[in-house]
Design a protein that fits this description.
2 domains; 3-stranded parallel β-sheet; two-stranded antiparallel sheet
């Protein structure tokens, strides 16, 4: 399909609707893998792309075997895609992209539907692809992964206009832009004895948290001056602790909501268990907060 106006360029030249080289060098992972998978088996899915490249059967089989091992989905080899879980479908769909060995990966919400361990494995794989010289372009609402998978982060507003184009760490610190883009929000938060409003990112409105300079920058004679031991990894951990704390709090709220529903349905035992889980989650939340403050003290040169 040709553009209605203007020119689209890729790899230094105009892009046409049926550009075979572009299709060979760029692979797209759909947000919904159900619309991407169509073959009778996982094996056929992994072989389909390389088959269109005109490769030998030996090389096609080799690529498919490599993907099965790489993604640890060998047990799915002969199963139909429609019989897979959402996370398994996502892995197979990503496998179809990998089997093409493209130069550019376009990933639409790649971590959606994956369990925590699979998400970590996916992030490690994306990092490996970057180190191998591949270009990774990811569309995501998951702020927790952008620091791991990107060097450049672009925030779009609801009108599709660019609100910010910067490093992931600068983006994560810009709560004003994140609020405008609906990537974080403010909402009332209920404790057992009081209610107050806080940011969805986990930073409380009444709490002062000094901002740290970007990794590698120099700040002198400031309260938030970074000690010589401060590294990019320390800054990364500080931000991640904030987001882990936020998600942990959300989980506790969800457990309590379902405990109320269980009580209303007459399942008192289940409600009690969910409340116990929420109580433990609150304990973990406090540990996250202590860790976040500790890393902040270290970053300022404290002992």
């Amino acid at each position: 399909m040709e553009p209605s106006s203007g020119t689209v360029r890729a790899f230094g030249r105009p892009l046409t609707g049926r550009d075979a080289e572009f299709r060979r060098r760029v692979s797209l992972l759909f947000q919904n893998p159900q619309v991407q998978l169509f073959s009778l088996s996982v094996w056929d899915e992994l072989c389909f792309g390389p088959l269109q490249l005109g490769l030998s059967q030996e090389e096609i089989d080799g690529r498919a075997e490599d993907i099965l091992r790489l993604l640890n989905i060998g047990q799915l080899r002969d199963r139909g895609p429609w019989n897979l879980s959402g996370g398994e479908m996502k892995k197979v769909a990503f496998g179809t992209c990998l089997s093409m060995n493209p130069d550019v990966f376009l990933l639409d919400e790649p971590a959606t539907g994956l369990d925590p361990r699979s998400q970590i494995q996916l992030i490690d794989l994306i990092i490996s692809l970057k180190k191998a010289g591949k270009t990774i372009i990811t569309a995501t609402h998951d702020l927790g992964i952008i620091g791991d998978i990107s060097d450049r982060t672009i925030v779009f507003g609801e009108d599709h206009a660019v609100l910010l184009d910067d490093t992931p760490w600068e983006v994560l610190k810009n709560t004003e832009v994140l609020l405008r883009a609906n990537l974080i929000h403010k909402h009332p938060h209920r404790h057992s004895w009081y209610v107050h409003e806080h940011m969805h990112s986990g930073v409380h409105e009444h709490e002062h948290i000094p901002e740290l300079p970007s990794p590698g920058s120099v700040a002198e004679k400031k309260q938030n001056a970074v000690s010589p031991e401060m590294t990019a990894e320390t800054e990364k951990l500080r931000i991640l602790l904030r987001f882990w704390k936020q998600h942990n709090h959300e989980h506790a709220e969800t457990y309590l909501q379902w405990a109320e529903k269980a009580e209303a349905a007459g399942n008192a035992d289940v409600a009690g268990m969910l409340k116990e889980i929420a109580a433990e989650t609150e304990k973990i939340d406090r540990l996250f907060e202590r860790a976040r403050k500790a890393i902040g003290k270290y970053a300022q040169g404290g002992s």
